[in-house]
Every structure is written in structure tokens, then in C-alpha cells.
Amino acid sequence: MTTETSTKENNSFVLRGIKDVTFEERPVPKLAGPHDVRLQVNYTGICGSDVHYWQHGRIGHFVVKDPMVLGHESAGTVVEVGESVKSLKKGDRVAMEPGVPCRRCVRCKEGKYNLCFEMSFAATPPYDGTLAKYYVLPEDLCYKLPESLSLEEGALMEPLAVAVHITKQSGLKQSDTCVIFGAGPVGLLCCAVAKAFGAKKVVAVDINRERLDFAKSYAADSTFEPSKVSAPENAQRLISENALGVGADVAIDASGAEPSVQTAVHVLRAGGSYVQGGMGRDEITFPIMAACTKELTVKGSFRYGSGDYQTAVDLVSSGKIDVKKLISRKVSFEDAEQAFEDVKAGKAIKVLIEGPK
Ligand SMILES: NC(=O)c1ccc[n+]([C@@H]2O[C@H](COP(=O)([O-])OP(=O)(O)OC[C@H]3O[C@@H](n4cnc5c(N)ncnc54)[C@H](O)[C@@H]3O)[C@@H](O)[C@H]2O)c1
Ligand SMILES: [Zn+2]
Ligand SMILES: [Zn+2]
Fold it and tell me: Which pathway does the protein contribute to (predicted)?
């Protein structure tokens, strides 16, 4: 152990209870195994789930019982490597995949490690998040950033990996048409991934005009603002206004809103593919007749799995996707709470918090 790892110089942004956050000097985390690396966290994006834990102290059955460090969308710099680490060295800049699976269970062994029951995921209770000076991860969950990518862009690899996984789940093919509900960070990135994967037409749907305007300037070919009519009526107008013929090939929900899910089912062509990426109310009314008679493929999507993070890095480094445009502003670590306020108020797309100096 180095002298550094025995000190308590790990400034962390901690959620103590509902709407109660503070800064704490916590112990510097130690490498848990020979394949681990210790990272100095440079940038962390704020996600809706971080805001939700801060506001409500829970998401579904995940309840914050003990103080927990927030944050899971981070990029950092390697400061210490375990003795078996081969792919990384001190000073390397990496995107940090923030969930460590058990690697032993059936889901892990079949390659779907995002479905691991024993996943230790940053800022999902009881596991601490990445809004700290230091964080330890196994080397294979650190994705080296090419020279051309900044650490700020590195922090955006997390939501981009979410969008990559959702889009892969949809089975979207070259020249497909795709409707994406919700133009927040995840929906916007799904638009970008769908275009990068060869979609002929991507339609972004949102109830917020500003977000739709941004989507149009970012990666959507056209946009749609639903009206207060039934889902089949909105779907009909969506199809005709966007020249989707007999319906879209792929529909993705990245809003978690019941009307979006219903409209998505009605907007699809027979044999189309639907992916549930958004999380909202636990239970909703689902149009089973349309889903059944159109023989839709309906899938969920949870976080990211094998290859998704690397695909995210590759899509940005090859110039196919620009994540810089999503960064609304950066704040210092001391102003972390303000960043949460901004995201909650919908004032920003992505706010990045700089790591403690
Ligand atoms: N599946 C996963 O692993 C995963 C990972 C991260 C986030 N998520 C979920 O993805 C969703 C999107 O995340 P985000 O960070 O972009 O959130 P966000 O809240 O920024 O974006 C959601 C968007 O949906 C829009 N919306 C709300 N009601 C709507 C409606 N009726 N019709 C159309 N649009 C509507 C909102 O205006 C907003 O722009 C959230 O539900 C989040 O929980 C899922
Ligand atoms: Zn997130
Ligand atoms: Zn497992």
C-alpha cells in the first residue's frame, strides 16, 4: 500500500437523505484485486436517476438507506494500476463503465452481464458512485480514450452506451425508419445512434418544443409534437406528417411516458420492432391487440452490455456521432448541487461536474 492510499483525501459528493447532500472526505479507495486500477475522476455527467435519488431517496426497490456517493457517468485518468493490469498505465485517460458484474452467474456467463443479479453499480444503493476524487474499477471496464477524444466527451460515453444498447436491441437495419419518443439525452443519443447505424429516417417525438428543435438540429430528420388525442390518432398523424408509409420499422421509447408507449405500438408497421428504454410509472395500459396482430417484436433494454461501451467510443472517435453538442455547461465540484438543480429544472441537456482538484 502506498502512503497515498492510507490517507482520507477523497472528496466525495454524498447523498445523506432526501434532498440532503454534502461533501465528505472519505478514505481513498484501495485496489480490490490485481486487475483493478484507481482513477482520478475528471468529469461526471448528471443523469435523471441521480436527480431521482436526490429528490426521492429511491428508485423502485432500490432504496438509499445509508449515505451514498452520487454519480455514474464519468471519465477519469489512471493514477494507480494493479500488478496484473496489462492494457493501462498511469496517465491513461478512460471512459469509466460504472457497473461491475459478478462474472460467475448464468446471465454473466451467457454474455448478458448487464442482467447480473449481483451487479455492483455506481450510485445504485448500496454502492457508492463516481462523484469523488478517486474511484476503483477493473481494467476491462475502463475504455481508453483516443487522443482525439476529450475527457468531457469521455463522460458522455455512459449515456451513449445506453443508447447503443437500446438501438442494438431494436435490431435496426440499414434504411429502416425509426421513431424515437423522448428527446432528452438518451432519446437524442438514440437518434444519433440510429442514424449512425444507417436509419433512412429518424423522427424525434417530445412534448417539449425546445427539445424537439434541438433534436432537429442534432440528429433527427423530422420531429413530432403529440396532441391531446388518442394514441392511434397521434400515431396516424405522425405517420402521415412524416411520410412513414405503412408505419415505422422501429420505435423506441426513451421517455417512460404511457402515451409514448401506446403511440409507439400504433406507429409501427406489421412485423416492426419496439424497445422500451424509458422508465416511468411501473405499470401502464399496453395496446395488446395491435402488438399481437402486427406481430411486433417487443424488447426491454437495461443499461449496456458486451461491446456497447467500445461501440460508443468508436462512434465518437470515427466522427459518426458528436456528443460535445449535448454538453450544456460544466460546473466545478463545489457547485455540484447547482448542477443537480439545473438538471431537475430541465435547464440543460447534460451538465458535467469537474472532478475535485
Ligand atoms: N434503460 C436504461 O438502462 C436507461 C438508462 C438511462 C435512462 N433511462 C431512462 O430513459 C429515459 C430518458 O432518459 P433521459 O435522461 O433522456 O431523460 P429526460 O427526462 O431528460 O428525457 C425524457 C424526455 O421525454 C419527454 N416526454 C415526457 N413525456 C412525454 C410524452 N408524453 N411524449 C413524448 N415525450 C415525452 C420529456 O419532455 C423529456 O424531454 C428516462 O425514463 C430514464 O429513466 C433508461
Ligand atoms: Zn445514467
Ligand atoms: Zn453475474
Answer: Carbohydrate degradation; L-arabinose degradation via L-arabinitol; D-xylulose 5-phosphate from L-arabinose (fungal route): step 4/5
